[in-house]
Write a structure and sequence with these properties.
The chain has 262 residues and is an alpha/beta fold. 42% of the residues lie in helices and 15% in strands. The protein binds 3-methyl-2-oxobutanoic acid (KIV) and sodium ion.
Length: 262
């Protein structure tokens, strides 16, 4: 599903869109042929890969570096790259420059958190030919203001506000919308009111698609298991098994053997 129009068509056809984050070439290579519809080079790379406790350290250069690595891996699906912290908040020129850097690095589209003053910026990017995915609900780039990672839109007035923002993003030309950590019923309502697909994470089963962070679905950090994460595999256990086997084989002199030597 490399084309954007397939993404749009999915909403009407009832095909649920499967998305995962990826940050490097070997991961992107693994995605090819698995049925994953699209991938996100998320600024969650700062947490999952770089060990930060939030995403604020991401810069356009870091996002471009990971985007280029993912594109070289040839995932054969739509590549969306995150616009990092503040890059859509410094005016249209800076946003255009950042989006251009990400597209030149191999992204097909960018994702921007929030509504408000970024709606006008998103409209400008879309008019310039840059496909934009929106992101509402929990906005990790605002954790310092929202005081951490909590479920959003828990009361009816907050749901209405969220719906307003979602419709503003749709009107500005966003091609899809991530909804993060909101109640299922809120996501259901917003999904029904929009013509663009919603992609949920911690937003229940009624979204048009789902996204999970690579390291979460693979249980690469097994102690991190919030309610919305399912471990679809245990790459951590497999990796530790391989590492122990290698260490043991080196210590015992079993590796390398004659066939593995020149
Ligand atoms: O950076 C990220 O991984 C994201 C997804 C969780 C939507 O923005
Ligand atoms: Na992100």
């Amino acid at each position: 599903m490399e084309a954007l129009r397939n993404f749009a068509a999915a909403k009407n056809s009832g095909h649920k869109i499967s998305m995962v984050t990826a940050y490097d070439a070997p991961s992107a290579r693994l995605i090819s042929g698995t049925g994953i519809d699209a991938l996100l080079v998320g600024d969650s790379v700062m947490m999952a890969v770089h060990g930060h406790s939030d995403t604020l350290a991401a810069t356009p250069a870091i996002m471009a570096l990971h985007t280029a690595a993912v594109a070289r891996g040839g995932p054969g699906c739509l590549i969306v790259a995150d616009m990092p912290f503040l890059s859509a908040r410094k005016g249209t020129a800076y946003a255009l420059d950042t989006a251009a850097e990400l597209l030149r690095s191999g992204a097909h589209a960018v994702k921007i958190e929030g509504a408000g003053s970024t709606v006008a910026v998103i409209r400008e990017l879309v008019e310039a030919g840059i496909p934009v995915m929106g992101h509402l609900g929990l906005q990790p780039q605002s954790v310092r203001a929202t005081d951490g990672y909590h479920v959003q839109a828990k009361n009816p007035s907050e749901v209405l506000e969220l719906l307003d923002d979602a419709q503003a993003l749709e009107k500005a030309g966003a091609f899809a919308l991530v909804l993060e950590c909101i109640p299922s019923e809120a996501a259901k309502k917003i999904t029904a009111k929009l013509t663009i697909p919603t992609i949920g994470i911690g937003a229940g089963p009624h979204c048009d698609g789902q996204i999970l962070v690579w390291h979460d679905l693979h249980a690469l950090n097994p102690s991190f298991k919030p309610r919305f994460v399912r471990h679809f595999g245990d790459a951590s256990a497999e990796s530790r098994r391989a590492l122990s086997a290698y260490a043991e084989a080196v210590h015992s002199g079993q590796f390398p053997n004659a066939e593995e030597s020149f």
